[in-house]
Amino acid sequence: MDRWGTLRLPIVIDSASVATGQRSLGDPDVRYSLWPPLSHGCPQTSSPDVSYPVEVDYDYGRIPTDFLTGQTAFGAGLERWAPLLPPLAAPGLGEGDTPLLEIGEGLYVKDESRNPTWSHKDRLNRVTTSAAVAMGAPGVVVASSGNHGASAAAYAARAGLRCVVLTSPELPPAVAAFLSAYGAVVLPMPTEARWPLAERISDEFGFHPVSNLTPFHTGHSFGAEGYKTVAYEIAAELGVPGAVFVPTGYGELLFGVWKGFIELCRLGLTDRVPRLFSCEPAAGGPLAAALRQGVPATRVTVGATDAYGIDCAVNGYRGVLAVAESDGRALLVDDAEMRAAQAELAAQGMWVELSAAAGLAGLRTLSDAEMVEGPVVCVATSSGFKDTGGFPSALAPLDGSWEPARERLRAAGIGS
């Protein structure tokens, strides 16, 4: 029921989805109907000390045996995987089907910067915007300092919805350009003020919240489902790798990749689940801290880091579950290690933002004795355009004559 007392019901849509409801990650026996999507985690199992997310459950018996390998009638991108996603009520932008590039023997990079707004967040926002459309919301509201806000604005525009983005005053230039182009209402403010105001906007105007509203991250109950498609695509192209290394903030992507592989194994389409390695900035690392302490979620003090996309002070239980259940590990990487990984990827033709290089940086911290068997996949989450700084200054122009050009080439190691 909205603020005017009108009962809002989901729009009936023709969907290939076999989603049946929502299930608490705090207690799998606690279930909810599919609608409305829960935006504050599980109300029965959560407390002031911990917030437990919910996940979407499916009628797995209705999934065809050629789900992973067959050509389906649903389409490409996320549509290909529609049965194991919440209903896709909003139009897409061609998200998904990102390349899996081999950069060394048995070492692959899943390049998520090739999504429509240059980040993995497009997979999440296709699903969460679909929820807003299905619920009849007039718009979406999101608290984000980067990729999430840009993506939410794009998918809202595509669906004909308004979008309000509560963001940091230090907004990266590329993200600011995205938001302006898509017509989002941008409200820069201190970080701690964003979540209470997002909830107030949702309550006052009926906007659908597509980001987190809880003390320990739970996020939108449908959101992480979009990330499962990363696992499906890896498995369809490569099979099941030995491990996947994932840049990690709140842990939604990490959980989605793990759940995708769990589902494929449950369906008998694969025979195992890869180890999941979370890769957080050493300046914070709440997921690593929660695993050390043996708790579902915790809070840390975040030091200085340029990896602004994943410098979270709190973790979500999803990440704890993914690492623990996959026999994985929580890794911490510093800015120097991420910059080295960023340069390594650039040498392979991939320019990613610093946060996006955390996966490869995490892999490079392992000793030879710690390396996993089988192929390894590092997820690179977003484009280098999303960084807040570090762009080279404009080069002084040449006059077009040979000698100055030759000197520049020699300085670059070309010629003698």
Please, could you describe this protein's structure?
- The structure is a single chain.
- The chain is an alpha/beta fold and 416 residues long.
- The protein has a domain at 223-386: Rossmann fold, CATH 3.40.50.
- The chain has 11 helices and 13 strands.
- The protein has helices spanning 121-134, 147-159, 173-182, 191-205, 223-238, 252-266, 286-293, 317-325, 335-347, 358-364, 402-411, and strands spanning 19-24, 31-32, 54-58, 100-104, 107-111, 139-143, 162-167, 185-188, 208-209, 243-247, 275-281, 329-333, 376-380.
- The chain has a 6-stranded mixed beta sheet, sandwiched between helices. A 4-stranded parallel beta sheet has the order 8-7-6-9, with helices on both faces. A 3-stranded antiparallel beta sheet has the order 2-1-3, with no helix packed on it.
- β6, α2 and β7 (162-167) form a beta-alpha-beta unit.
- α1 crosses α5 (223-238), α2 (147-159) runs parallel beside α3 and α5 packs across α6 (252-266).
- The chain is globular, with a radius of gyration of 21 Å.
- One of its GO terms (molecular function) is L-serine ammonia-lyase activity.
- Keywords: Lyase, Pyridoxal phosphate.
- This is Threonine synthase.
- Residues 94-381 form the Tryptophan synthase beta chain-like PALP domain.
- Its cofactor is pyridoxal 5'-phosphate.
Write the SSE topology.
Layout: E1 19-24, E2 31-32, E3 54-58, E4 100-104, E5 107-111, H1 121-134, E6 139-143, H2 147-159, E7 162-167, H3 173-182, E8 185-188, H4 191-205, E9 208-209, H5 223-238, E10 243-247, H6 252-266, E11 275-281, H7 286-293, H8 317-325, E12 329-333, H9 335-347, H10 358-364, E13 376-380, H11 402-411
Helix pairs in contact: 1-2, 1-5, 2-3, 5-6, 6-8, 9-10
